[in-house]
Design a protein that fits this description.
The protein has helices at 5-9, 13-16, 71-84, 110-118; strands at residues 38-42, 48-52, 57-64, 89-95. The protein is α+β, with helices and mostly antiparallel strands.
Length: 125
């Protein structure tokens, strides 16, 4: 089983005719929007925020917040995103570790390095 035709095409030719392509997805008969749903999150800076269907939410989610996963690109784009979408709530989820790339220099965390790069241009309220 492969989730895309492209991924199936990367297998050796002798195996390709044995691979079924079944796209990743969600069964929308089972999982459907709920107009009354809300989500309350603990915020790393303290307190909580409550999100509802009426909130505009922009997310960045990775196992670890590191350059290899594009965290630096997202963070550098964030001031512009927030200017263009002033009512959006930004939700960043990920650990401080390193999955694939190099460790941050001098015992720092990639999360902090790229946050500090743009912090003065962010509305953290």
């Amino acid at each position: 089983i492969s989730p895309t035709y492209w991924q199936a095409s990367t297998f050796p030719p002798t195996f390709r005719d044995k691979i079924a392509v079944i796209h990743d997805g969600i069964d929308t008969d089972v999982i459907a929007p709920n107009p009354n749903v809300s989500l309350t999150l603990n915020v790393s800076t303290g307190g909580t925020i409550k999100l509802t269907r009426n909130d505009e939410v922009i997310t960045f989610v990775n196992r670890n917040l590191e350059p290899y996963r594009g965290y630096h690109i997202f963070m550098r784009a964030l001031p512009d995103i927030m200017r263009r979408r002033p009512n959006a709530r930004i939700l960043i989820v990920g650990a401080d570790g390193v999955s694939y790339g190099a460790k941050a220099p001098d015992g720092q965390k990639w999360k902090d390095i790229f946050l500090n790069e743009v912090i003065e241009d962010l509305d953290m309220s």
